[in-house]
Amino acid sequence: MWQDKLKEIIYILEQSDVNEIDMTFLGRRFRVVKSIPAAPVQDRPAASTALTDTIASSGNEDTALNTPKEETVSGNEVLSPMPGTFYRAPSPEDDLFVQVGDSVKAGDTLCIIEAMKIMNEIEAEESGVVRKILVENAQPVEYNQPLFIVDPNG
Predict the structure, then answer these.
(1) Residue 129 in contact with residue 150, Cβ under 8 Å?
(2) 86 in the same domain as 50
(3) pLDDT higher for 32 or 61?
(4) At 13, is the secondary structure helix, strand, or coil?
(5) What is the pTM of this model?
(6) How far is CA 39 from CA 42, 43, 44, 45, in A?
(7) Which of 8, 83, 109, 112 is the most buried (most CB within 10 A)?
(8) Where are the strands (E) in 16-108, listed by range?
(9) Half-sphere exposure of 64 toward its Cβ, with a 13 Å CA cutoff?
(10) Which domain holds residue 121?
């Protein structure tokens, strides 16, 4: 029975733009990956930091002033539980779920990730203050990619 479900999941994965599916079915955990990404997700922030450092060293004073502020943001990262498309609001004409500086409680919706035409609400796991939003609206995200930094002491 679970082999048939696994075949269905593989078929869905092959027919979609989704790169990875991770699920538990009948007590068994399945992770199906279409292709391995060229660079691990953890390396991406380092690459953008290197680009920021390059821009800062080029003499742009505004960027140089903002670089230390970005490095001193404290809090816990909220990670994407799935690959998909990141949305900050339920629809383009609605208000954003959260903005930098907003207080959130555990269970509050932070964003939506669309995966396979299903809108998945991502909720805060703990109360705190949103210190940084790490992804632009309507951008693709990967599994375990940091989305927000929430300071529980805020």
Answers:
(1) yes
(2) no
(3) 32
(4) helix
(5) 0.55
(6) 8, 7, 8, 11
(7) 83
(8) 20-25, 28-33, 76-79, 84-87, 103-104
(9) 6
(10) 77-151
